[in-house]
Amino acid sequence: MTSTFPNISISTERLVLRALEEDDAPALAEMMNDEQIAAWTDVPQPFTQDGARHWITEWAPGERAAGRGLDLAVTEFLTQRLVGVIQLAKTNWHVRATELSYIIAPWARGEGYASEAALATAQWLFGDQKFERIEIRTAADNTASQQVAQKIGCISEGVLRNACIAHVRTEDGTWTDLRTDFIVWSLLPEDLEGADGHLADRDGFTSYSDWN
Questions:
Q1: Of 54, 191, 172, nearest to 119 (Cα)?
Q2: pTM for the full model?
Q3: Which of 79, 101, 162, 180 is most buried, by the most CB atoms less than 10 A from its CB?
């Protein structure tokens, strides 16, 4: 029998993490067209509202039902505005391990939302779901993503050489692939003891493509 993640909501001091909803499609499409997100992820460009709706209504539910992962909308507690997405993917239920990634809208960067959401998700995975390992992969030049991994207590395990495809703008304005390295980070339950953050309730909650 395939194991799957439950439908849940995770609350922190400033954020609510919940399942993606169809009303998120406009904000999700706008966010995914950001230059940095286009550079470090494999989402189609331009990313349309139809693409966002497909992600929300088909891809994410399918990944969750198959036991492969979970997608969570990251929203501001006070405004309910979509600030990002947390994704769990490549989940191995036998060893209780999953790969975590995060995307934050350009207007919400610099507020610590990525680390707050990632840490809350990790606490839920280790506490409620009894997971034993979380893995994060960051492109070699994606220093912002690396800082989030370090902030929540991850340990750098090494480099996967030439394993990542990033994207750069060409002179004619189109995107082209750029091959680079992945840095692999891991987080175990005991690593959370030194992590910062005051995280509140855990209430009770799949994946689009491979975010870096």
A1: 191
A2: 0.88
A3: 101
